[in-house]
Amino acid sequence: MSTFARSKIIVGVDYARISYVPTRSESMKDPEPITKWPGGSAANETREKVPSKIAYASENPDKLTEDVWGYGVFPGLRSYCWTKLLLDKKTCETQYDDPLLQQAVGSAIMGLPPNKSAEDVVSDYLGFMYQHCLRSLEEKMTPAILAVTPLEFWFTMPAIWSDQAQFATKRAAERAGFGSRPQDEIRMITEPEAAALAAFKSTSENFEDVLQADTGVLVCDCGGGTVDITTYTIRLVNGEKKLEESCVGSGGKCGSTMIDRNLYNVMGSRYGSAWTTVAPDRRCPGSRFMNEFENHKRDFGSMSDTRDITLRLRLKGIEEAHPSCVQYDPEEGEITLTNKDMKRCFDPVIDKITTLIDQQLKEVKKARAPEIKTLVLVGGFGDSQYLFKKIKVMCAKYGNLFPIVPHRPWSAIARGAALRGLTGELVEKRRCRRHYGTQFSRTFRPGIDKDEGDCYHDNFMDKKCKMGWMSWPINKGEILSSDTQRSIGFHMTVPKDMKKDQRTKSLVLYSCSLGHAPARWDSPGVERVGVVRFSFDDVNLKKLAKVKRGKLGSRKTFHSLDFELQVGMSSKSGVLHFDVCYEGEKCGTAEIEFERETDADDSSSNWTGRMSDLSFDSYDD
């Protein structure tokens, strides 16, 4: 108990896994994962992961009196899983995404309850996680000590996610109760970075010579929904090993749940309506059928590749003489999957992963970064023997590349997140994953610009202007440190008689993941991130120069203001943050609002102010 007294506890949360470590300890101990979970047989077993499932009593009135989660979700319940994937609908699709994912969204496999969003369901699930986390800590230190002990939560998120999904993750955690006590905080960290921390600690303690300075390491986080790949260069800084990203990371929505969707595809093509008419609670995640497949999926590749497996599921309308009675025993109600069937489920996923790795290695070479010597596999799927064998074969082609799986890859992300709070930053330099910018207007150029409805007459300048041009002060691939900020300068004219309660404006922030960002906001590949709303209550307009514009008899007086929008990526908050400054001083407040799914499509009407080529300036600080 003395270990916990008067210390802060760092808690790493990887959605379905939790690890914690007190800041006051005699040694830099490895974070301890929570391994006891409520529900079913799990109450008496040790497991590092809890299923990311939830079932609502309102949808199971005959079976439940209260909502259940994790191991408490038993076969036969209408339940929800894979919901975390639904948080990120804004990320542009890539060639590495699971082609069956979009088909699954909205179906019984990846549906949502009526009147609930993905964020609502994730928040409900995390609410159970939060309460269980508190109960687990109380068992270690008593409720009285926990009540006065600060908790610093580090939440992980896929690096490939959109900014909107990253904010949604943090918002769902806050709604679930994390950080709700006055002394508690929530921080964010990407999954590859957390994985790198766990891998470095594990490998440095046991195999010190594996990760050498001035070499490269590729971290491949193979989770359930996503695969994140980031390469780092190992540097020796003041006698300590530090990391810097070698190039822009990559990834796709092609995690191990894609194997399940491939299984559904095999079943559908083989058994047709006999499969599709099976009730969702008998064939979807959480069912006995899928639980049995999950066990075989985990073991696949660890033994002979020629053995068959059987799954229990009774199909109606298929007898022995039926044309669809293939690898099905109607008497026993058992389906047989051959080794070839299992490979049909696994190989498309692994092909995407190896292609991602190969592409990342090419990018490292293009960036002239140090050669990658070590490939670290982490995440739930990273523990697959079949995946490791395939990766090992791929690495052999490069000659000097060796794959490793650190200790306990299932909980590596959560443990690494906790280590981030305990040991500080390991990654000193990151690569920006996308371009960021804003719109501006400039003087219309006859014969060059097309007047397509996005032109207007600027009364202040008394000129025809065209809006929709893009300025990209933050570029993809740019090296960012934890305190890096970029400034977007913009000009605004406001009426002389503007009241204080009217001094709220907005600026639309855009992003682009292409190699070269386009010049126009309506070009393919340009995505709207959200609206940064800010106030400038503290600016004394009376001290500003006055300018009169307009025709005689109707001239109006305006004030001219030059602002800076400072965009930064804090290493602790883990998400974009914004400040709006006037004459070098922060003025008012600034926050970003994301577009809801029901919002209208992006258009120039979203703008509350226009900027001209004579008054707009975009620069780096």
UniProtKB/TrEMBL annotation:
GO terms for molecular function: ATP binding; ATP-dependent protein folding chaperone. Residues 595-621 are annotated as: Disordered. Coiled coil: none annotated. Pfam families: HSP70. The keyword ATP-binding applies. PANTHER family: ALPHA KINASE/ELONGATION FACTOR 2 KINASE, HSP70 FAMILY PROTEIN (AFU_ORTHOLOGUE AFUA_4G14040). This is Actin-like ATPase domain-containing protein.
